[in-house]
Amino acid sequence: MKKTNVICPFCGCLCDDLTVNIEDNKITGVDNGCALASSKFLNTERLEKPLIKRGGKLVETSYDEAIESSVEILSNAKRPLLFGWSGTQGEAQCKGVHICELLGGVIDNTSSVCHGPSILAIQEVGHPGCTLGQVKNRADLIIYWGCNPVDAHPRHMSRYTTYADGFFLDNAFRERKMIVVDVRKTESANVADEFVRIKPGGDYAVISALRAMIRGKSKSIPDSVAGVSKSQLERVVKMCKEAKFGAIFFGLGMTMSPNKYKNVRNAIELVDEMSRHTKFTITPMRGHWNVYGSNEVFTWMTGYPYGIDFSRGIAFYNPGETTAVDMLSRKECDALLVVASDPGAHFPKKCLEHMADIPVIQIDPHLNCTSHFADIQIPVAITGVETDGTAYRMDGIPLRTKKVIETERPTDTEVLEKMYKKILEAKGKCTHCW
């Protein structure tokens, strides 16, 4: 059996044209998907049964006992942290916010370690963005800055930019130009019309130089800026001015290098400068599948996109204070709930040392590095494969994912709903008021 037009649940592209081959309720192959998509659909390293740590060893338990014990840990914690949420559907993210408010804890998503600085910049100067469909059909100049789509978003170029047909372009492949800006020559740079290699940490200086040149202040620019020659910067400015529709996509090479959110703010203001001559837009290359959705859901419900602290009885937001890495490295939280994420693989050593000292509850379909820190593991269905749900593409478009096979495992939303009701009971709250 084949299921068509399936949405990929891996990266922020949310490619919606996959065909999944199924035999006896097992996925045997994926057509149209990249290597990352195939890996996601065919991954067999699952958390099989609920496990709980007793006497230093993980032993099998029931879902009810795992949920009951999780509720006890979270309810008794003075400063619980609920982290992750980028790999699950919007419905589960809603439950997570409700639980955190009830506990008076802190809820954070993976934005705080990827595109959090982009959000800070957008809060200050706005977001001149557009849909990926507009880029595909109209853009004749693409700039990838501090990102490598060939490896991280393998179908981005073929679906939306370099190799995609465009409705308003006669011969998109030949008309469309591509510039790559990075500190090293990547696979994406190999297919670019212009590769701009900058020195590490030189993003802000190069963006500022481009802004000055666009404003006609070329004489004030030195012969070299952060390793980039003045003549190459002039060439880039010429390409930008001659474009009818330009689109900048930027990644962690910009957001997590020195100057962080100031780089993004400067890049948005560069788009503003270029839009005085032609049409230009800018879009962050969101990596985690539904991390954009977690920002949306958290903002609807609390007013803030990530790092939200309910300990004061109201939503409080201060990145650097209420974000997961900062809290863990300060040894501030005394219990950690991880949903659809893997901080064990990506967080600094100081954070992992504290994770080893506090109770960690993991809700996830897969075995990963965080599993080794977990005192309780609760296996769930894979969103977009074994259960449907709502997710947001990197350009802010919500899509409804499909269930392609059946499973006996509960969904994230079902597990969190049970936890929410039990926390209400434990705290003696009225179910009608909450």
Features:
alpha/beta; 434 residues; 21 strands; 18 helices; globular; 5-stranded parallel sheet; 9-stranded mixed sheet
Would you summarize the structure shown here?
It is built from 18 helices and 21 strands.
Give an overview of the whole structure.
The protein has 434 residues and is of the alpha/beta class. It has 18 helices and 21 strands. It has helices at residues 35-42, 63-76, 90-103, 116-125, 132-138, 149-152, 156-160, 172-175, 187-190, 203-214, 230-242, 252-255, 260-274, 291-302, 324-329, 343-346, 349-355, 412-426, and strands at residues 2-6, 18-23, 26-31, 51-54, 57-60, 80-84, 106-109, 141-145, 177-182, 194-197, 224-225, 228-229, 245-250, 279-284, 308-309, 316-317, 335-339, 360-364, 376-379, 389-392, 398-401. The strands form five sheets. It has a nine-stranded mixed β-sheet, with helices on one face. Strands 10-9-8-13-14 form a five-stranded parallel β-sheet. A three-stranded antiparallel β-sheet has the order 1-2-3. Helix 3 (90-103) packs across helix 14 and helix 10 crosses helix 11 (230-242). The two termini are 44 Å apart.
